[in-house]
């Protein structure tokens, strides 16, 4: 079924909301929001997009705040299935793309296992878009030929971490860290310990795609200190391309705005 086909009763649409501003959502994503009977909305979903919803649509906040309010994923899965089985058109609205550290596949499987029709409407992933909004390309001809996107929600050495920081330090790719505000000191220390040049450029982009977007630039050796006052959501870029932050437009500064 095409992404712009009508959303049928009893169907779930998993919609990626893009990197902040509702104007960066896809046409298909907006169409799904406009048709929804029920919207299950994440903390990072573009709230302005809710203005497109029908006045009688039920909006359910299922936020997962860092070290704050938390809706268990199992409960979200149950709500998707329950509302769809009641014959409602259900939209699961998230920020970025729900299949990049967004548990989108967990929700997809919950629907398919319950025999609930489910449609995926991808969003623009913040891992690429937010650096671009901060004036940083994740690749650049003659500079770098690839990028690696990692989750920083647990620090290096944590039992739940599966990342090889030695391999990342040697990869020669741009390193993009999502969900790594609190663990940035440990992440940068692990990269330095594994041989990454301390002078490697780095930048943190906070609230990318919003009017109060902030960019802090420095090197991998000092970016954790420079960005100490930045709160989530924020994305860290480590690699030669991060030096482009200094040449970007007025939204990009070397200190927190």
TrEMBL record:
Signal peptide: none annotated. GO terms for biological process: methylation; siroheme biosynthetic process. Residues 11-223 form the Tetrapyrrole methylase domain. GO terms for molecular function: uroporphyrin-III C-methyltransferase activity. It comes from the Bacteria. The keyword Transferase applies. This is uroporphyrinogen-III C-methyltransferase. It comes from Ornithinimicrobium humiphilum.
């Amino acid at each position: 079924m095409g992404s712009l086909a009508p959303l049928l009763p009893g169907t779930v649409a998993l919609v990626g909301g893009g990197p902040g501003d509702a104007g960066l959502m896809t046409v298909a994503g907006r169409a799904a929001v406009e048709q929804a009977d029920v919207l299950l909305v994440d903390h990072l979903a573009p709230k302005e997009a809710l203005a497109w919803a029908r006045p009688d649509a039920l909006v359910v906040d299922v936020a997962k705040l860092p070290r704050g309010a938390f809706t268990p994923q199992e409960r979200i899965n149950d709500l998707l299935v329950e509302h769809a089985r009641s014959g409602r058109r259900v939209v699961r609205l998230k920020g970025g793309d729900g299949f990049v550290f967004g548990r989108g596949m967990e929700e997809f499987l919950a629907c398919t296992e319950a025999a609930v029709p489910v449609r995926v409407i991808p969003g623009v992933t913040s891992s690429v878009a937010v650096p671009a909004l901060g004036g940083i390309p994740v690749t650049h001809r003659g500079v770098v030929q690839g990028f690696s996107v990692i989750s920083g929600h647990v620090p290096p050495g944590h039992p739940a971490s599966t990342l090889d920081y030695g391999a990342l330090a040697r990869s020669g790719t741009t390193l993009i860290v999502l969900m790594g505000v609190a663990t940035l000191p440990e992440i940068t220390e692990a990269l330095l310990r594994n041989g990454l040049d301390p002078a490697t450029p780095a930048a943190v982009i906070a609230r990318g795609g919003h009017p109060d977007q902030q960019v802090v630039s420095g090197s991998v050796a000092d970016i954790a200190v420079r960005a100490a006052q930045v709160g989530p959501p924020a994305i860290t870029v480590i690699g030669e391309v991060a030096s482009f932050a200094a040449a970007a437009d007025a939204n990009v500064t070397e200190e927190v705005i």
